[in-house]
Specification:
Number of domains: 2
Number of strands: 7
Radius of gyration: 20 Å
Helix content: 40-55%
Strand content: 5-15%
Strand order of the largest sheet: 2-3-1-4-5
Largest sheet: 5 strands, parallel
CATH class of the largest domain: Alpha Beta
Length: about 325
């Protein structure tokens, strides 16, 4: 039976670099069989990979009809939206005028059972791969990355407001790492959970690469000949004080409102993408309708607040999943 590895995220843990620069290249070199997500301009596979998550979670659709499984190399499914906060998924549909779907509304904690049911007759050799990043950095980086979802909301368009909302949520939340990993453990077994760390991707790339290579069961020679491990895409412009993100300017907000009221927003958007291509479309929007906005980084007090809030959850990573305590202390998951 075929071997599967399901990479569930988290978002903002070098997923774009790994998907575009590592997994896609390994797929091209026939060392893995890769089922998205990645972006290759003009590729039919790009559209399929972006649709895969929604197909996987819609009961009326069988995503496996589109998949050509391999029994010779591991089959890799990768999509960070599996651990994307529910609020972000709903806001994306609001902002982009998309219709709600079951997949958009599904809580991340519901997804393991859905995946378990889907794969029960497909394979009994399934590994769940999750990459973590300490909550002090992850929560802030996610907010900065998806700021466009909140920029028009006076209750959430400031970092301090969003953090307050996160801290007020009753656990378990998507940021309680032990809880989300435990949900996958219940479906796929503790022995089939693999945890990697974004902090090692940043600070010790060789260790991160070796952990991934061993999980994929690819020889050293083949892996390092195929992958440029020093590649890091999608890095955000930042200073010590904050991230810089694009915010919609006055002209852009007026145009959005007008097109939405007329029910033409998506028609115009995707028509321009088809005509110009995704890159030229992005350049046009950035030049005409966006201004740079700085998203504050957490203060030391806010970092302490987050560390305290998630400390017990992170300690459980050591007690329940054998993650070395020294590593958790080194990367500021626990004191």
């Amino acid at each position: 039976m075929e071997k599967f590895i399901i990479h569930i995220g988290y978002p903002k843990t070098a997923t774009t670099s790994i998907q575009n620069g590592w997994l896609y290249q390994l797929h091209q070199d026939e060392l893995i069989n890769y089922f998205g997500k990645f972006r290759v301009e003009g590729s039919e596979y790009e559209k399929y990979s972006m649709e895969l998550y929604y197909d996987m979670l819609r009961e009326e659709v069988d995503p496996f009809e589109k998949m050509d499984f391999s029994s010779d190399v591991p089959n890799i499914v990768s999509h960070e939206v599996l651990t994307k906060p529910l609020l972000f998924k709903k806001r994306r549909h609001d902002v982009q005028s998309l219709d709600y779907s079951k997949s958009a509304e599904m809580e991340p904690f519901e997804i393991p059972k859905v995946l378990g049911k889907m794969f029960e007759d497909i394979s009994d050799e399934i590994t769940i791969w999750v990459t973590l990043r300490n909550q002090q950095e992850l929560i802030n980086s996610l907010y900065a990355n998806y700021y466009q979802y909140f920029e028009a909301d006076p209750e959430l368009n400031q970092w301090d407001q969003y953090l307050h909302r996160v801290m007020e949520e009753n656990p378990p939340t998507i940021y309680d790492f032990d809880q989300i990993i435990d949900a996958y453990r219940q479906e796929f077994g503790r022995e089939n959970i693999r945890v990697l760390f974004f902090e090692e991707f940043i600070n010790n790339r060789d260790i991160f690469a070796e952990s991934l290579r061993k999980m994929l069961q690819i020889s050293e020679e083949d892996f390092y000949e195929s992958v440029n491990i020093n590649k890091h895409d999608n890095k955000k412009k930042q200073t010590t004080d904050g991230y810089f993100r694009d915010g919609t300017n006055t002209t852009g907000r007026l145009l959005k409102r007008t097109l939405r009221r007329a029910g033409l927003f998506n028609t115009v958007k995707y028509g321009l993408i088809r005509t110009l291509g995704r890159n030229r479309y992005g350049d046009l929007i950035h030049e005409r309708f966006m201004d740079e906005v700085q998203i504050k980084k957490p203060t030391q007090g806010q970092k302490e607040q987050m560390l305290e809030r998630f400390s017990d959850s992170n300690k459980n990573l050591h007690m329940d999943f054998d993650i070395p305590k020294q590593k958790l202390e080194k990367y500021e998951y626990i004191r």
